C-alpha cells in the first residue's frame, strides 16, 4: 500500500480521493511548462498555497482578528488565554533548525534524469537500464564552509548532491564540483572542518579559507596538496552552478545482474561548459549580490532555460584494480580521462524550482549510503566514514529518526518495514505486528528476492587483520597536484598563483606560510617560486619533512610522503580553457544607455542576442524610461545604482550622440566599462559611442582599432553596422573571458 501523505484541505476534497495536481507549475510559475512525474504527484498532497482560502489556526479554527492580541481592555495587559497569539508566537519561536555543519548554504531544484542506453553490462540498477524511464531528481548545490546566510561567491568547493527518486528506492549521489578531496580518511574530517570554519575565539572569518587555522592544518597535511590546487583554482569561483562539473569523488562499484562488479567514478558534465569568474569579481559580487548563484539558478529555471548535465562514468574492471600508479581507494586521486575515458550515459535536466525553500532545499537529507541494487560501495576510507555521518547528522538537524517521511525525502515507492514510532511519526502503521518473523501477519512485510529488486551487498572477499593504519599505496601526495597544475592554461596557472598569494597573504603566522611553501616546492617550482615572491619569502633549500600526521607509536618513516611522477603528464580535461564555448544561452548582457540613445542599433543587437538565448538588461543613469533619438521610449531595467558590471557577462554601448555624451561624463558608466574590461569580459560599442570607450582606461591600452580581426582575441569591438556587430559580439560572449589580456592590460577599476 502506498504511504498516505498528509493531505491539504484541497487535496482531501478532491473527488477522486487522489492528491490534487501540483500547484507550482499551474498557478505559481509563469513560464515553466506543466510538469508531472511520480515525485510531483507525491509532493502534491503536501503543498498548499493559501490563495483565496480562509485563515485558520493550526488546528483549523477560523481566525477573526490576526491584528490584535486578546487584552484586558484596549490598553492591556495581554491575556495568557489568547491561544491564537500563543500558537502564532510559539510556532515562530521554533521556526529555525540547526544549519548543516558543512554545506549550510545551498540552492535546490527539481528535475529529471534519463539514461541513453541500457547499462546492463555493468549495473542492474533499473534507472540506468530502462531508457523509457524519466527518473525524478532533486538537486542541491552548496558551498562548504560558510553559514546559511553567507555569500555564494566564497572561494570554496561546491557541493553537487543529486537525489534520484527511482522505482527501486532513492539513490543519492552526494558529490562535489572537484573530483578529489582534502583528506584520505574520515578520521580527519572533523579536524579539516574545524580548521576551515571561522576561528573559534572570535568566529572570524566567515565563509573563507584565508586564515591561519586552515593553512596551519593544510600545511601539516601533505595529502591535501592535490585538492588544495583545485581549491585555489578558478573551479572554486564558478560563474554559475549551471556551469560546474560534478564528481562522485570516491570510487564506487557497479554490480550487474550476474553479480559481477566493476569500479566506477561518477561525473556530471555541464552542457553550457565549465566557466568561472575572476577573484576580484567574486569578492565584489559577494557585496553586490551575495545570492548571485542562487538567483542565477532560479532565474534560468523560471525563464525555461533548463540547466543540463550529461552523466558520465569511468568504468574500471575489477581485475584492473591495481593497474594504476595510485590507489583507486584513495580519494585524493582522480583517474585521468586519458587512462579511462568518461562515457556519457544519460542526461540530467533541472526544470522546476522548489515551491518552498525550507520544506524542500533545507529539509532534503542526502546520504552516500542511499544506494539502489546495482550500485555499491568501495573500501575508500573516506567514503566508509561518510556512510555513518549522513544519517547521524540528520538525526540532530531534522530532529529524529523519521526524516525519511518528510515529503522531499520520501521515495516514490511504498515503504514497509517494522521500524516504528519516534518524534513526528507520520505513517499510521496498522495491525498488531511490528516484528519479524511473525505468524500473525503471515510474516509480512516480506523480504524481497534479489531477482525482484531486493538489495544484496556485493560479496567482496575480505581476509585481513583489524589494523589502524594508512596504506602505503596512499603515501604519494604530489604527482596529481603537479599533473593538475601542469594541465592548466597560462591564465589558469596565474590565477592559482594569485590565489595562494592572497590566501597565504591573509595568514598571520609566517611559519605557516613557510611550511606551505615547502609543500608547494614539492609540486612545481613554477608554482612555488612566484608564490614565495609574492609573500616576500624564499623557497626552502631542501625538501621539508612532511609526515606530521603520524600515530603516537608509529615510525614516522612509515608515513613519509612520497613524491613521484604521474603516468600522465598533461590532462586536458583538468583545464577549463578547452571547455564548451559555442553558446551565449543565459549570458547576461548589460546595455549602457541614456536619453538620446539610438533605438535602431539597440534593438537590432538586443533582438539578435536574445534570439540566441542571452538575457539583455537596459541600464541607464536612472530608472523609468529613456527617450531615444528615434522611436518609442525604452524601459530601463536597472540604474547604475542597482546594477554593477560584476553581475553581467558582457557590455554593449549602443549608438546615439546625446546618450554617448551623457555616458562619457558619467563616472559610473565609465567605471562599469573599466571594470568589465578588468574582468576580461566582451565589450562592444557602436561607432557613434566611441567617445564613451575613449573615456576608459583600456582605450589607451589596446593599440588596435577594435576590428573584426582583434575582436576574438582582445574582446573589444567597435562597429557601425549593428547586425554585423551583433554577430561578432555573440562570438565574443561565447568565449566567456579574454583572460590573456588580464595581466598585460590590467586597468584600475
Ligand atoms: Fe559531506 N557531509 N562529508 N562530503 N557532503 C555533509 O551531511 C561528511 C564529503 C557533501 O546538499 C553533512 O546532510 C564526512 C566528500 C555534500 O544537503 C555531513 C566526510 C564529499 C553535502 C557530511 C564528508 C561530500 C555534504 C552535513 C568525510 C564529496 C551537502 C549535512 C568522511 C564527494 C549535501 C548533511 C546537501 C554534507 C559529512 C566528505 C559532499 C556532516 C564525515 C568527500 C555535497 O553528514
From TrEMBL:
Swiss-Prot/TrEMBL cofactor(s): heme
Does the record carry Transcription regulation as a key word? Answer: no
Q: Which residues form the Catalase core domain?
A: 56-444
| InterPro entries, alphabetized | Catalase, Catalase_AS, Catalase_clade2, Catalase_clade2_helical, Catalase_core, Catalase_haem_BS, Catalase_immune_responsive, Catalase_large_C
Q: Which UniProt keywords apply?
A: Heme, Hydrogen peroxide, Iron, Metal-binding, Oxidoreductase, Peroxidase
What GO MF terms are annotated?
A: catalase activity; heme binding; metal ion binding
Where along this sequence does the record place binding of heme?
100, 140, 189, 386, 390, 397
Biased composition, class Polar residues, residue ranges? 55-70
Q: 3'-histidyl-3-tyrosine (His-Tyr): where is this cross-link?
A: 367-390
Basic and acidic residues biased stretches: 24-42
Highest taxon listed in the record's lineage: Bacteria
- Asked if the Swiss-Prot or TrEMBL record annotates the protein with the keyword Amino-acid biosynthesis, the reply is no
Protein name (record): Catalase
This chain's source organism reads Hufsiella ginkgonis
Amino acid at each position: 500500500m502506498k504511504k498516505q501523505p498528509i493531505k491539504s484541505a484541497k487535496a482531501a476534497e478532491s473527488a477522486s480521493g487522489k492528491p490534487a495536481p501540483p500547484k507550482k507549475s499551474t498557478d505559481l510559475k509563469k513560464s515553466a511548462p506543466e510538469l508531472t512525474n511520480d515525485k510531483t504527484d507525491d509532493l502534491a498532497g503536501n503543498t498548499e498555497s493559501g490563495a483565496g482560502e480562509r485563515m485558520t489556526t493550526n488546528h483549523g479554527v477560523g481566525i477573526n482578528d490576526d491584528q490584535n492580541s486578546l487584552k484586558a481592555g484596549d490598553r492591556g495587559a495581554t491575556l495568557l488565554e489568547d491561544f491564537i497569539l500563543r500558537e502564532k508566537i510559539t510556532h515562530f519561536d521554533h521556526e529555525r533548525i540547526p544549519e548543516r555543519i558543512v554545506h549550510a548554504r545551498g540552492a535546490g531544484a527539481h528535475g529529471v534524469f534519463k539514461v541513453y542506453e541500457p547499462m546492463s553490462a555493468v549495473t542492474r540498477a533499473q534507472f540506468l537500464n530502462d531508457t523509457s524511464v524519466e527518473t525524478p531528481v532533486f538537486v542541491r548545490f552548496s558551498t562548504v564552509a560558510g553559514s546559511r546566510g553567507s555569500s555564494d561567491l566564497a572561494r570554496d568547493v561546491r557541493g553537487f548532491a543529486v537525489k534520484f527518486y527511482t522505482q527501486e528506492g532513492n539513490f543519492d549521489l552526494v558529490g562535489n564540483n572537484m573530483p578529489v578531496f582534502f583528506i584520505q580518511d574520515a578520521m580527519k574530517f572533523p579536524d579539516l572542518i574545524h580548521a576551515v570554519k571561522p576561528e573559534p575565539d572570535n568566529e572570524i572569518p566567515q565563509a573563507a579559507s584565508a586564515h591561519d587555522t586552515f593553512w596551519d592544518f593544510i600545511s601539516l597535511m601533505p595529502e591535501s596538496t592535490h585538492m588544495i590546487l583545485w581549491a585555489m583554482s578558478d573551479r572554486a569561483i564558478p560563474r554559475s552552478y549551471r556551469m560546474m562539473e560534478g564528481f562522485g569523488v570516491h570510487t564506487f562499484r557497479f554490480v550487474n545482474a550476474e553479480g559481477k562488479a566493476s569500479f566506477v567514478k561518477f561525473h556530471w558534465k555541464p552542457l553550457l561548459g565549465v566557466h568561472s569568474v575572476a577573484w576580484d569579481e567574486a569578492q565584489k559580487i559577494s557585496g553586490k549580490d551575495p545570492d548571485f548563484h542562487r538567483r542565477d539558478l532560479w532565474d534560468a529555471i523560471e525563464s525555461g532555460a533548463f540547466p543540463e548535465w550529461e552523466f558520465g562514468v569511468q568504468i574500471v574492471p575489477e581485475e584492473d584494480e591495481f593497474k594504476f600508479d595510485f590507489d583507486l581507494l584513495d580519494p585524493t586521486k582522480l583517474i585521468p580521462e586519458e587512462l579511462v575515458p568518461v562515457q556519457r550515459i544519460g542526461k540530467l535536466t533541472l526544470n522546476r524550482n522548489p515551491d518552498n525553500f525550507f520544506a524542500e532545499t533545507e529539509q532534503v537529507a542526502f546520504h552516500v549510503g542511499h544506494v539502489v541494487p546495482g550500485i555499491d560501495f568501495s573500501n575508500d576510507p573516506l567514503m566508509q566514514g561518510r556512510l555513518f555521518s549522513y544519517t547521524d547528522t540528520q538525526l540532530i538537524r531534522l530532529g529524529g529518526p523519521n526524516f525519511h517521511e518528510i515529503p522531499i525525502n520520501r521515495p516514490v515507492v511504498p515503504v514497509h518495514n517494522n521500524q516504528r514510532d519516534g518524534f513526528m511519526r507520520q505513517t499510521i502503521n496498522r495491525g498488531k505486528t511490528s516484528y519479524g518473523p511473525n505468524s500473525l501477519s503471515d510474516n509480512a512485510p516480506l523480504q524481497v528476492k534479489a531477482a525482484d529488486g531486493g538489495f544484496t551487498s556485493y560479496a567482496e572477499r575480505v581476509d585481513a587483520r583489524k589494523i589502524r593504519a594508512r596504506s602505503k599505496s596512499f603515501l604519494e601526495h604530489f604527482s596529481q597536484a603537479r599533473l593538475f597544475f601542469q594541465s592548466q592554461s597560462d591564465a589558469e596557472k596565474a590565477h592559482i598563483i594569485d590565489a595562494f598569494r592572497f590566501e597565504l597573504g591573509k595568514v598571520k603566522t609566517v611559519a605557516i606560510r613557510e611550511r606551505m611553501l615547502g609543500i608547494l616546492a614539492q609540486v612545481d617550482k613554477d608554482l612555488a617560486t612566484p608564490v614565495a615572491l609574492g609573500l616576500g619569502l624564499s623557497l626552502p633549500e631542501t625538501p621539508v619533512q612532511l609526515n606530521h600526521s603520524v600515530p603516537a607509536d608509529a615510525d614516522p618513516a612509515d608515513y613519509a610522503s612520497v613524491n613521484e611522477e604521474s603516468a600522465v603528464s598533461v590532462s586536458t580535461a583538468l583545464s577549463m580553457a578547452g571547455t564548451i564555448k559555442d553558446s551565449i544561452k543565459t549570458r547576461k548582457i548589460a546595455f549602457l544607455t541614456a536619453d538620446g540613445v539610438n533605438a535602431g542599433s539597440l534593438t537590432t543587437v538586443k533582438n539578435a542576442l536574445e534570439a540566441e538565448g542571452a538575457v539583455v538588461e537596459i541600464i541607464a543613469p536612472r530608472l523609468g524610461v529613456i527617450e531615444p533619438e528615434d522611436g518609442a521610449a525604452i524601459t530601463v531595467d536597472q540604474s547604475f545604482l542597482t546594477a554593477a558590471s560584476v553581475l553581467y557577462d558582457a557590455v554593449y554601448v549602443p549608438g546615439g550622440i546625446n546618450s554617448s555624451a551623457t555616458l562619457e561624463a558619467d563616472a559610473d558608466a565609465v567605471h562599469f566599462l573599466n571594470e568589465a574590461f578588468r574582468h576580461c569580459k566582451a565589450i562592444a560599442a557602436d561607432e557613434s559611442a566611441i567617445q564613451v570607450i575613449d573615456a576608459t582606461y583600456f582605450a589607451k591600452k589596446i593599440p588596435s582599432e577594435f576590428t573584426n580581426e582583434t575582436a576574438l582575441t582582445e574582446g573589444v569591438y567597435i562597429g557601425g553596422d549593428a547586425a554585423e556587430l551583433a554577430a561578432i559580439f555573440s562570438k565574443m560572449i561565447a568565449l566567456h573571458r579574454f583572460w590573456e589580456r588580464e595581466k598585460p592590460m590590467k586597468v584600475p577599476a
